[in-house]
Amino acid sequence: MSGHDHGGDGVSRRKVLECMTWAGTGVLWTVTGGVPRSLGIIDSAQAATAAAPGMSFLQISDSHVGFDKPANPNALGTLEEAVGKINAMPAKPSFMIHTGDITHLSKAAEFDNAERIISQSKLDVHYVPGEHDFLDEEVKLYRERYGRGTKGQGWYSFDAGGVHFIGLVNVVDLKAGGLGNLGAEQLAWLQDDLRGKSKSTPIVLFAHIPLWTVYPEWGWGTEDGGRALEQVKGFGSVTVLNGHIHQVMQKVEGNVTFHTARSTAFPQPAPGAAASPGPMKVEDARLRGMLGVASINFKQNEQRLAIIDTPLQG
Amino acid sequence: MKTLNRRAFGVDLGLALAAAILLPATSARADDMEIHIDNFVFQPAELKIKAGTTVTWTNRDDIPHTVVSAGKFRSKTLDTDDKFSFTFTNAGDYKYFCSLHPHMTGMIKVE
Q1: From the CA of B65, how many Å to the nearest CA of chain A?
Q2: Is residue A48 scored above 80 in pLDDT?
Q3: In this structure, which CATH number among 3.30.429.10, 3.20.20.70, 2.60.40.1940, 3.60.21.10 belongs to the domain A13-311?
Q4: Does A10 reach chain B within 8 Å, measured CB to CB?
Q5: Which residues span the domain enclosing B96?
Q6: Average pLDDT for residues A64-90, to the nearest whole number?
Q7: Among the residues of chain A, which ranges form H helices?
């Protein structure tokens, strides 16, 4: 997969499937005018970045600080390894997004530990919450730390490098028997946020639970995700970045590229491959090949975002 | 050590017998029910009980869950091996789910 390009004339089914099996530490995203490209592991990504000026940012997800079960007795340690990988990148990314489940149980000490490690990247971090970040009784710890300047349950947008970024919250007010949930208030805000935007503006939507239906039997999807995607349909370049499922998956539909990042804490099984989506215990030697981060690179005047998933090891 | 164990056993047995004699109401406890959460599933998913029964949920997953019945009861977040109990005093159907993983649903039918 190293150096593989999702641009050009489209992505064959087999290539998409290859990407789905290609797991890593993080995703390096390259936005080059519209659609993301998956560049492979970090060296080739950096080579591509160097070839043309642009903007790159990182995605980190599902750090589950506080998790200490057999699937990874030291989730804080692997988060620190991921930050070490980020700091070792020769080209410094512009900023980082964290797609939720910062902590495992929303304890103050877990948030504090996460902050202590993630801040070592010395990057601005834009967070969206996962369901594990809203577990404290008063549901205030996440909001106190990361909710400033956000709307509703914590959604917001910002612009960077010519790209419009929209952070969505789909882990609140979940309905029995259902999937992730955005809700009417957030969808109305999204419509408002996009009003007047040029259709050539590259859009990045990010949220914790996949906005597309990955595997409803395990709750891997968002009930009203389709309504958000309808609103970005006319844009030339849309990239949807999610976490929650602790593995890399990608698909491309027209101008929309969907991508999920690895966790830095523990892997989860492929859809339907186990009795439940719970933490998957693998041999110690394999664990770091299944954790990682992602980087994304945006280049002016190109129609593609490049996404690079980098495992902690391998 | 053996004699100590035997003595401790004898004390426990004595207490148990005393409890059985002094507290005949404890026989109702035999009806109390357990539900386990394993692999993101409430087991059993549907339970029929009599009014007055206490149901205890135990989370045996490595991931936290909750037990929520809208307007009826709501557990705190249950980490691994945490328990939540609720006593059903009124007849009716109680649908419930995990508010973190809403595809996990269950039903308590109280007669």
Answers
A1: 10
A2: no
A3: 3.60.21.10
A4: no
A5: 32-110
A6: 96
A7: 13-21, 42-51, 75-87, 108-118, 141-146, 184-194, 225-231, 284-287
